[in-house]
Structure formats: C-alpha cells, structure tokens
Amino acid sequence: MMAPATERPLPLPDPLSQPFWDAAREHRLCVQACRQCDHLAYPPEIACRGCSGGDLYFREVSGRATLHSWTVLRDPPSPGFRDRLPVILAVVELEERKGLLLSTNLIDTAPETLRIDLPVEVRFEDVSDDCTFIHFAGGA
Amino acid sequence: MWANSGKVAVAGVGYSPLERRSAQSLAALTVQACDAALADAGLGRHDLDGVATSPAMPRYGGKKGVDEGIDIVTPWYLSDLFGISGHVAWTGSTNGMVTQSLIDGALAIAAGLCRHVIVYRALHVPDGRYVNFDTAHAVGGDQYLAPYGFNMPPAWAAIALRRYFELYGYERADFARYIADNRANAQLNPNAFWRGKPITADDYLNSRMIADPMSILDCDIPVDGCCALILTSTERARDLRQRPALLTGFAAGTRHGAGGTPMNMDDMWEGARETAGRLWTATGLSPADIDTAQLYDGFSPLVLTWLEGMGFCEQGEGLAFLREGHGSLTGRLPINTGGGALGEGRLHGMTQLAEAVMQVTDRAGERQVSGAHHALATISNGLAKSTAFIFSRDG
Ligand SMILES: [Zn+2]
Predict the structure, then answer these.
(1) pLDDT digits (tens, 9 = 90+) for B17-64
(2) Beta-carbon count within 10 A of B350 CB
C-alpha cells in the first residue's frame, strides 16, 4: 500500500491537457479555443460546446479575471494543505468570456477584502521542475 | 401530459436502520430494507420481477470501494441473494443518481415488462473520511480541481451558497430557522438518524464550519443503510396492503454544467427551471397545486435551487421564504416534512421519494400534511442526473 501523499495533489497531464500544463510551466495561461466558432473553453474538452466541432487549439489569455465566488477553508481539504491555512478556494471568471470559469486559489489576498466581481490577476507557482499551479491574486 | 400518468404507483416503502457505522454488512442492510418494503406492500421476494439501483459509492478522492455486499450492492447480486435471479425480467443499474432508476422502473411497469419492481439505494460509509484526497496525483477532471483543494463537495456547495448570499444580501442567520425547523421535522420521523437530537437556530449559527458558509449542519450525514420502494401498476397496487401513491409524472434534468467549477449556481438554476418546465408539462400541474415539496438537501443550498427553479419563488427570494417560516411543517409549503436528508441521513434522494409517498398516502404520522394531494420530490442539484417526481393521492 502506498503511503498517503503529504503534498498537494499534482495534476497528471493527459493528451488533452498536456499543452495547457506545458503553457503553465512557461507562465502562460491558456484556454481552449475553437477555430470554427471561436468558442472558448476551460477545462479543455474533446469537442466544442459552441459548434460541436473538433478543431480546437490553445490560446493565451490575459490572466485578468473577476471573482465569481469563494470559500475560505480553515481545515486542510487534503494533507498537502496543512501548512497553507487558511486557504481561499476561489472561482474566477476570465475576462475573455462571460461564464468562462476557473477554480483556483487566491493568494496574497486578505479574506476580508473578498467580494463578487473583485478584479484578480493570474499568479504562477512553480511547485516542482515540471509542474506549475495557476493561482490568482486580488487587488491588482 | 405523460400518457401513463397515474397508472404506475408506489405500493411499499422500507428502511433498514440508518447508522453511522453499522455492525452489519451493506448486503444485510439492503436485504432488511427490501424485505421491509415488500412486507409493507404485502408482497414476497418471488413477486419481484424487476430490480434497479445506482450501485456506485460516491466517494471523492481516496479509494473508492467496489466490494460487492460491503461497499455496494448491485441489482444482480441482490437478485441472487433473493433467489430470484432466474426469473426477474429486468435488472437496471444507472451510473447517475438512483432516482433515475425510479424512472426506469416506472417505465418498465408502464410498458408491461415488469409487474413489481424494487428500487433501492444502499450506501456505505467508507473507512476514514468520505472526502480525503490523499493521492499524489490528480487525474481526469480532478487535475483542474484537487491541486487547489476543490476535492470536497461541501466546498463546491459553499461556492454556490456564498455567491447566493452575496448576490441577494443574505447571511447564515437567514437560514437558521429553516435548518432548526427541518431538524424538528426529523424528530417526527422514526427513520431519521437525527431523531432524538433537536437543534436550535443558535446551534446552527455556532456549528462547526466545513467550508464557509457551509457548516456541518448544512451537509447531510453519511450513513450505512438502505431505503427501498416497490413499484407496480396502480391497478395491482389497489389490491395490495397500502393505499397506493400514484406517479402522476416525472422529469429528468439534462443540463451539463459549463465546467470550470463543479457547482455553478447559475447553471443549477437553469437546469432546475428546465426540469420544472418538463415536469409541469408532463403532469399538467403547476406550483400552486403542490401541497408539500420534498426538495433535495444533501447540501442546504440545493433547497434554494429547487425552491426557486421549480417556480415557488423568484430567483433570490427562496431564502426569504424560508426565513419567514413558509417552508416549515405548518407553513404555506411544507418542505422536507420528514427532515430531508439533513435530518434523515444521506440516501441520495430516496428520502425525498419515500416522504412524498408517505404524505400522499396519509402515512406520515405526526408530520402528516393534512389532506396532501400532490407531493413533489426533486433530487440532486438541478444539473444532468437530476430528477423530479410528483406523487398523488389515489382518488
Ligand atoms: Zn466551435
């Protein structure tokens, strides 16, 4: 039996997500875009929800977003968060499209300043040589 | 209107004990609940020719138990245990919510494939925590969530409830009366896990926070246990032991959330409204016809999703409705009259179905809504895999 993990779970890229995580390592935030109808998607999908086409690519976005909602956790959601409390779980709406949501953590942001539509901006955290997490920060 | 409206009925309801950690196996608890439902209807195991459930263990992260009879009870295994696997006409297994099995079962009766179908849900509390993402890697959809701690459903619900509070100017205090009244309903329900443990509004406000603003009292408690329902034709049900609860109609939710977050209140409202539209069309009824509403409450904000999505309140007004006591047992629209899942324990919607049946058959005892004619049951979060049913009094 494997010992339980002590770090936050690392994303295991698959063929669909590999370009997304590769871009993150280069500190670029990308979402999926459709060549046929220009629909944007996150997380990446096999087919476009706008036109059901399959000609999709990754496009870099600005990293600017607004706060859609959040929760502040004081207990670790998994063992790797033990030394990172409290942690702000946030859903942000990317400025490129209404309803283009992304789940993330807010860092360098005081919980008491949180409100819907708070402007936030992407921050990259290199957690290992080959993995970068995508966070956001408020008050930009 | 659904062509078979009122022609299929629930003829029996059965529960096993609902306990936090039962000394009995899940197989044993399932047999108890199913035998109880059969006895309630005045039927025996060999009368069954259809068996349906959703046998998955709904665990996030960690090891998902798949051991037959311990973690799950599939319809094939149950048929075998009952000695009826040689003659059942149909076994159904959905990978969504068990309440979809009720639709399948009703259609099997209406189509003449089966005479008596049992629909059950057996749930086992896994060792350790239900939610504990302790693997080193996150794969599939989890890779976009678990690295950020989004691996626990109460946090997903917290995101939805926080947005609701912020958009419409509410706070937790506005929920307190409903939560305490709901627990009071559970005191009148012999099956409820929380029977014998009433709470006050202050208990709610001081309860342990899981994911602000979701406290432990906003989440149903996982239990070991099972609930089962017997479906048959209304015609046959009239010759059985109990008064039948007629299935007037049902609707399935089909909306796929936009992604990015597991529970987006805006998508959930939209999905609930679509489901509602289908339900009112299928039944020829409207919200004004409903005497009691059993609204899924695995997480408290889902009550708001359904209350508003079904059209009882405008969007954003559901919590004011509850705050004023309109959802209480003696209120305008008694909601979750047996305490819902928050009071009874986690049964993935069977609570709502069973209580709707009890209400329209005058079997709800001290919590009976006098003369309840139409009872609504809604299950899940409004998105795909959600379901809604109306059960009605016979005659
Ligand atoms: Zn497209």
Answers:
(1) 999 999 999 999 999 999 999 999 999 999 999 999 999 887 766 667
(2) 31
Tokens at residue A10, please?
Answer: 């690392």
The residue of chain B nearest to residue A86, with distances taken between CA atoms, is B211
| Residues A121, A140 contacting (CB under 8 angstroms) | yes
Evaluate if residue B130 carries a pLDDT over 90.
no
Domain regions of chain A by residue span: 15-61, 62-140
Query: Could you tell me if residue B258 is inside a domain?
Result: no
B133/A78 touch (CB, cutoff 8 Å), yes or no:
yes
**How do residues B347-362 score in pLDDT, each as one tens digit?**
999 999 999 999 999 9
Overall domain count for chain B:
1
Q: What is the CATH number of the domain that holds B54?
A: 3.40.47.10
Residue B70 belongs to what domain range? 8-126+221-245
Cα B228 from Cα B11, distance rounded (Å)? 11
- What is the rounded distance in angstroms from the CA atom of residue B228 to the CA atom of residue B39? 11
The answer to whether B146 contacts A79, with C-beta atoms less than 8 Å apart, is: no
Interface of A with B (CB under 8 A): 2, 4-5, 7-14, 17, 41-43, 45, 49, 68-79, 81, 87, 89, 91, 99-105, 115-116, 133, 135
Using the mean position of ligand 1's atoms as its centre, give its distance from the Cα of residue A49 in Å.
6
Query: Which residues from chain B sit within 8 angstroms of residue A99, using beta carbons?
Result: 258, 266
Q: How confident is the model at residue B259 (pLDDT cuts 50, 70, 90)?
A: confident
Does the residue B323 lie in any domain? no
Q: Nearest-CA distance from B156 to chain A in Å?
A: 9
| Stretch (H or E) spanning A83 | none
Q: In this structure, are strands B374-379 and B292-295 parallel, antiparallel, or unpaired?
A: parallel
pLDDT higher than threshold 70 for residue A140: no
Report pLDDT for A3. Answer: 60
Q: How far away, in angstroms, is A51 Cα from ligand 1 center?
A: 4
Q: Is there a domain that residue B234 lies in?
A: yes
Q: What is the pTM of this model?
A: 0.96
Nearest chain B alpha carbon to A68: B163
